[in-house]
Amino acid sequence: MGFKCGIVGLPNVGKSTLFNALTQTAAAQAANYPFCTIEPNVGDVAVPDPRLETLAKIAGSKDIIPTRLTFVDIAGLVRGASKGEGLGNQFLGNIRECDAIAHVVRCFEDGDITHVEGGVDPIRDIETIETELMLSDLESLEKRVVNLEKKARGGDKESKETLALVEQCLALLREGKPARLAVGSGPEERKAFAGLGLLSSKPVLYVCNVEESSADKGNAFSEKVKARAAEEGAAAVVVSAKIESEIAVLPPDEQKEYLEAVGLAEPGLNRVIRAGYDLLHLVTYFTVGPKEARAWTIEKGTRAPQAAGVIHTDFEKGFIRAETIGFQDYVANKGEAGAREAGKFRLEGKEYTVADGDVLHFRFNN
Predict the structure, then answer these.
(1) Would you say 87 and 79 are in contact if contact means Cβ atoms under 8 Å apart?
(2) Which pairs count as long-range contacts for 307-312, CB under 8 Å and 24+ apart, including other chains?
(3) Are 305 and 314 in contact (CB under 8 A)?
(4) Contacts for 170-179 with beta carbons within 8 Å, 24 or more apart?
(5) How far is it, in rounded angstroms, from Cα 197 to Cα 137?
(6) What is the pTM of this model?
(7) Which residues pair with 100 in a beta bridge?
(8) What is the DSSP string of 6-66?
């Protein structure tokens, strides 16, 4: 079950530097975790989760396999992309294939790095990209309305429902607002909107790329971006792409020293990865045993049979029950046997909604 987060941004904002740091981080993880670089501009990275190490230690697991998130480095955007300027069509097509957008915003001054717009203004940069996405969506929806209206008048139920969503989005887009403001919080609503294929409906994570001295707390530019994110229900993370690229090539023991020297508790990329995971409404469940401790990604609200299907489709088809222990109960009682004795071992059926941190073992018919 792959989840893709597309990294976008104007030229010279640090987008590629950040992506390269991500892929170098993935390469560094290879000693302990499986990863793959699918293409030059696509990289899978492990989602940092200390719970997995804890579970593996208790169970004596031989291998540790974290869950992953895919980042896609998307070609730089210029004004007019919605009309095909620059690599516009390719850029927009690549975004369409992603589940969320990590928008890298330049929040640093540097006379040696020219800004495509002539000066640093993160809010203007955000609006430049968002405008291109909204213009593309507006054109796409307006082309579809006539056909949908015709089918809806003919009594087609699906067309009526789709038309209602399209009209909701058009109303926002015509006011200069992104379509994601119309998307509800439930999985079904998100699925319905996802079916429209709108660029501006995708959840956004703003990555504020700051100078090295501001990597811990941010600066005046990043504060503006955080305020903007709060207004629209998006997320924002502060990183220094320069620091991240330097950390990514260091061995683990030297990474720790470097982080301490620059006043950081952890690499900023960890925050980017976790924020991307949260942005996509994802949660983690675990399978634990002597062979391996493994994390699995599901969307929040997923029921047990569908969660089992992430491991293998046969698990979902033949689902009987899920043997379930909460993470805290597993740790507090030092494993499955202790949890059973303490009455913390549960049998859950088809209607059970899997919770973040559940340790599960699925029973199914072959």
Answers:
(1) no
(2) 307/354, 307/360, 308/360, 308/362, 308/364, 310/1, 311/287, 311/362
(3) no
(4) 170/138, 170/141, 170/142, 170/145, 173/134, 173/137, 173/138, 173/141, 173/200, 174/138, 176/131, 176/134, 177/134, 178/130, 178/133, 178/134, 178/232, 179/134, 179/137
(5) 9
(6) 0.80
(7) 5
(8) EEE--TTSSHHHHHHHHHHHHHHHTTTS-----BTTEEEEEPP-HHHHHHHHHHT-SEEE-
Q: Which of 244, 241, 242, 208 shows the shortest CA–CA distance to 28? A: 244
Q: b/e map of 295-313 (b: 16 or more CB within 10 Å)?
A: bbbbbbebbbbbbbbbbee
Q: Give the C-alpha separation, 56 to 290, whole Å.
A: 8
Could you give the CA distance from residue 228 to residue 234 in angstroms, rounded to a whole number? Answer: 8
Task: Assess contact for 15 and 71: CB atoms under 8 A.
Answer: no
Question: For 88-124, how does the pLDDT look when each residue is reduced to its tens digit (9 = 90+)?
Answer: 455 677 788 888 899 999 999 876 665 656 678 999 9
Reading the block at residue 315, the tokens are 């698990």
Q: Are 359 and 287 in contact (CB under 8 A)?
A: yes
**pLDDT exceeds 60 at position 34:** no
Q: Would the pLDDT of 168 be above 50?
A: yes
Residue 170 vs residue 132, higher pLDDT: 170
Residue with tokens 């996509």: 280
Q: How confident is the model at residue 63 (pLDDT cuts 50, 70, 90)?
A: very high
Structure tokens at 65: 């396999």
